[in-house]
Amino acid sequence: xxxxxxxVHREYDVFKDSLLRYLGYANEVGESFRFMVPVKVVxxxxxxxxxxxxxxxxxxxxxxxxxxxxxxxxxxxxxxxATIDTLIWQGLASVVIPGFTINRICWATNKLMTRxxxxxxxxxxxxxxxxxxxxxxxxxxxxRAVDLLMDSTLRKLYNxx
Length: 161
Hints:
By secondary structure, this protein is mostly helical. It has six helices and two strands. It has helices spanning 14-17, 26-32, 39-66, 72-114, 120-151, 154-158, and strands at residues 2-3, 9-10. The protein has a two-stranded antiparallel sheet. Keywords: Membrane, Transmembrane, Transmembrane helix.
């Protein structure tokens, strides 16, 4: 068990507490290299991140499914909620928002670099360095924003049942 953000101990989660977590960042790395690699490489990075999201959602649903329930309908409902909640949260927080954010950071960096007299390799690698270097700074704010968004919208719908 490890402490969560509220300093309460929680069960070990292979998708959050192991090196597998970094697969969720594959698309941000792909976006950082967009100006240096074929676009199919970037698409593949999204495939990897999306696979991580789907695997995490299925894992969360399966963990709920294994719990004892008095009624089968409740098991199905709670499993669906856990799976869909994780799928939406991870999709937004690990793929959509960070991918777009790094894409725009790299696009702006590339625009700035085209205005310099630096050698072309320096310009291209600068975009990569800025993109990858931005990842640690965007993760927590995006996670918090997605928590806030979901807590004030979707989670209100299914947490009152």
